[in-house]
Amino acid sequence: MQDTPAPILSRAREGEQTPSANRSIVIVGSGLAGYTLLKEIRKRDAAVPVTLVTADDGVFYSKPNLSNALAAGRDAAALAGAPAGKMAADLNATLVTHTTVAAIDPAAHRIRTADAEYGYGKLVLALGADPFPHRLAGDAADAVLTVNDLADYARFRAALAGKRRAVVLGGGLIGSEFANDLAAAGLDVTVVHLGEWPLERLLPVEAGQRLAERLSALGVRWHFGRTAKRVDAVDGGLRVTLDDGSAVDTDVVLSAIGLAPRTQLAQAAGIPVGRGIRTDRLLQTGAADVYAMGDCAEVDGLVLPYVQPLMVQARALAATLTGAPTEADYPAMPVMVKTPAHPVAVLPPRAGAAGGWKIDCGADGVCALHLDEDGRLQGFALTGAEAAKRNTLIKGLGVRV
Known about the structure:
The structure is a single chain. Helix content is 23%, strand content 26%. Helix 2 packs parallel to helix 9. The longest helix has 15 residues. A hairpin with a 6-residue loop joins strand 20 and strand 21. It contains ten helices and 24 strands. A five-stranded parallel sheet has the order 3-2-1-7-18. The protein has a five-stranded antiparallel sheet with strand order 20-21-24-23-22, with helices on one face. The two termini are 40 Å apart.
């Protein structure tokens, strides 16, 4: 549905409400970040005007569920939660769906779409991230899929109907989760990964190799140290040619090579960006009354595209927006990798931390502890049955990022 534009613009145009007097909050993005923030705002203030503008249909769903729904038999409809109309009613908000924000005017406290403008008192950019372009050659390069939202997942499910082979490009967190899910659903899965083991940016080699072994036992085949160069149509299927000249025949190709924070809108408005939209711990950007959170944000130098940091940000920002300035203070937040064949819990040490890994490899999993020179715990990587130790380790860690 297309909701009627919020009335805050007309009042501002008539001079009845200046930006400094405008209490309204505008959130751009209806992903987990945008909706979680809206829910947190309503816990603190039931009446402040909130408008949420989204490029999609505004259906609520949890993006992290997209990479482990296939084996459970859950299609896009099963993953969809409340529609936009119900979310708007339940949260006392105006939702503007199927609408892309084209520009921000920070000085005038306005955003512009193709059809309208909206004034704001506070603006929150919860824009998310885009999949890295695969840049593959070949006559079937356009057939390569990504799964970054619910509509993508619906297309992915449709492409898999009646198929038996899948190639996943990328063996990072999302690629490994999809490989597990596809193999558990009965597909013949091949992963092409530039690294020498899965999740090499998060896991020491022993932990990564153990994950690879367990997924191999499920039927996943790995091509480590390789990249795909082209995808061509052959014999009713697809052929993926790798950089060493070898080829893998398949029915579906999924690219999971990484995500890039959506910074273009902020950058065009003169708002400082780096890897993401730069903010301080209050999630305030370089423009007055403009905030950023979630996958698009670089908070105090960190891009943390995971659920737990998002939840911390939403609670802190809701407090700030409703009159109680609150910094995002992160506790120790392990990353949980959804690979049921061999679960993984990892809390990476801070960048540049001195010390090294102490690794214990057992039959049921790997326990890797990152210790400083004095033997103090700085992080961990746990796989298999060892992942159950994460809560015990967190209690004595005291890590803040």
